[in-house]
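To whoever is covering the structure queue this week,

Two jobs came back overnight. Logging them here so there's a record in the thread.

Job A:
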Amino acid sequence: MLSSHRGQDPVIAAQQYAVVLVNEEQLDQLMGRPSVRRVNSRFGPQDVYARYQRLKRQMMAGAVVLLVLAAGALWFLAPQPAMASMFPWSGASAVPALPTGASFSVTIASLQSGDAAAMAAARVRGLGLPAFTRRSPGKRQVYQAMVGPYASLDEAERTQRRLGGLGYSGAWLFVDESLRGASDAGHPEVSKGNPNVLLLGAPDRLSIVLELPSEPRQVKSDRTTQAALLIEAGPMPNPVQAQQWRAPEGVDLVDTVSIDGATAQGGGQHVLRALVALPDFAKANIRTEGRRVYVDLTRPLAEEDARTPRRLVDAPAATADQRAGAREKGAAVSEQGSGNGDQVQGTKQEEQYREAIAPLHERIAEVRPFLLSGAQSGSADVLAAIDQTLATLEESLVSIDVPLAEAGQHQLLLSATRVARRGLEPGFTGDRLAHAQKAIDMFDGAMATSTTPAAQ
């Protein structure tokens, strides 16, 4: 009889397995590996990296806090001028340049005599028009009587028609574009409610134009100092915001123009206040044309020539004895021939001027190359030496007795000297080399068209 266990498979000893559980330390002993001591056993690899990032952020935040605290301490402890100089918008270059444009003038006549042109301008000025004189450039120089300048062609054409009705039918338009595009920053934005400000170039003068929203009922001006002109115009429909402009590079008849608002006394109306900073030698004249207020700036000699012309005297006929004496002595001087005497005196003055100006022309020719090289090197000692030479030259130019016929060119020579000296100042922030080249161009223009000494 078979047992009930006979149906089960027999157990083979070779197929039995034993499972042994060991830890890492026991495994190291079984494998014979050296024991390793765990470092930073409380943190895994990911925990260590997170801790590093957190510490890095904390250090950066602390550095930012220290920087802010240091900047605040510097702001409160440092003098305000010293702090202001640290910021770029505090410098002169941050003030925008005056917008520039072309001017329109009306030429009345071209004459061979400077006195005749001055008399023609004086007659037109008596009619209430802004007339002036200038000597035309070029080899064939003539003296012109002109009216203007104006900011628009309409104004010039209206004046031309008025002159035609007064008998000046031959008057023609003249356009001056010498300052067009001279502004290095284009047309800066004008604050809301403020007038438009424009700088015009014209023959032997400049004009600052204040274009108001409406025609002003009152315009007042006051030369508060030799270097400041205050203008008040109104009423204005809106308050005026403070704004400032500087003169473009190379312009020497104006330095800055500033505007702000004020309230008229007793009326509560808004008034425009404009302050023009200009050299002490510049002369200013205020005029209005509709909505525009013009500030005409001129040099002293040019303005005096236009306003106080010499009287023209017809020379009486000389007697036979006087003509004989003139042939023997080479001049006609008598009580009856006083007109000829004035002419001889004028010729003598021009000869004396030519003799006095000739060595100054030679001195300018000597300084010319040093002006460029000094501006390029930028050496303080070299610039100071050149400036001293130009200062002596300027004193000589001022001391010379200038005849009427040479007034315009002499003033241009003096202006070129002052422009050159401005570029040599230690605080000059512009391009010295370009400024020196501008002064040299002015020197060349003045010397090329001036009268040369007569041949002996």
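Job B:
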Amino acid sequence: MANVKVGSRKTFLGRNIWNSLLAPRSLVWLVLSVPFCVFPAVAPSQDLPIVEAPESETSSDQPSVDPRPAGSISGTVLDGSGAVVVGARVILTRGDQSPPQEALSGDRGQFVFPNVAPGSFQIQIAAKGFAPQTSSGVLHGGEVYFAPPITLVPAGVDTAIEVTVPGSQVAEEQIKAQEKQRVFGVVPNFYVTYVANAVPLDAKQKFELAWKSTFDPVTFAFTVATAGVEQAQNDFAGYGQGAQGYARRFGALYADNITSTFIGSALLPVLLKQDPRYFYKGTGSTGSRILYAIANAVICKGDNRRWQPNYSAILGGLASGAISNLYYPPGSRGTALVFESTLIGTGETAVMNVFQEFVIRKLTPHAPSSASASPSKPSH
């Protein structure tokens, strides 16, 4: 009975059930047969194979998909006056480290980022002429997020502040350096500048330089010695000899020095706006430096830093010669002598300039070095 299939047993019972019920003596048999009709049908089921449901195939390596629907972020970029800013660069970054998205504000200043995954975000706005601005928020699933209007403010202008000092102050510093220039550390060499772009002197400084040069003790001592040599050679014999003759010679020499310096190096340079100094060249070939030195006897720099004829020196020499007719002996006077003396003085200046260019600087202990040749930029 254990090997009889459930299906065949059900068929047998179905065919004989009515006959069993009609026979009175079959009642006992029916009662006894009930267990065999029920329990054998259950027992064979223990031999049926048990099939387990397959496990769901999931991989921890696959990224989880946010089940929440994407949303969008939009906004408007304005300036301080409330006008829209067109072409502003808008960058959207999210808190999940996903790649940033970029957009440009439209003709109404608007921008929009569609299909944005929910979560925290940050918006950075940059536009030419404005300081960058940042806005942040949180986007919920399926939300249409309207950012508050973003107002840009003008960018701070970086101003390079150049500290300058008045030109007169720079020139004063340069004059102080020139006043230390003494040949062999003794003889004044004030009217030479070793600064190629030296600042022009103002009127007061031109007269101060003339005063310091004329009344320098060494200049006075040199005049004393020169007058003694003239006395010994009996130059300008009309002055005579003795103390009186020496005093006249000394007076004439010192007067020449004062008039030529103050007229040719101070008064006329102020009126004609010219610089009375010799600008040391120091570079180039020997020939070019010689020509430069000779030319500087008749040309000079103007206060506008341009080269021009040296009217101050030429006219100053003529004026000083004319004044000298007042105190030189009669035999040493005359218009011809004035022009002759001026021409000789110009030649002497040319020779002295050549010495300035090649020799005198080497003999001047306090001459500025090339490192100091660039003065502080003056204000005008």
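Note for Job B: The longest strand covers residues 71-78.

Please reply-all if you pick these up so we don't duplicate work.
Q.
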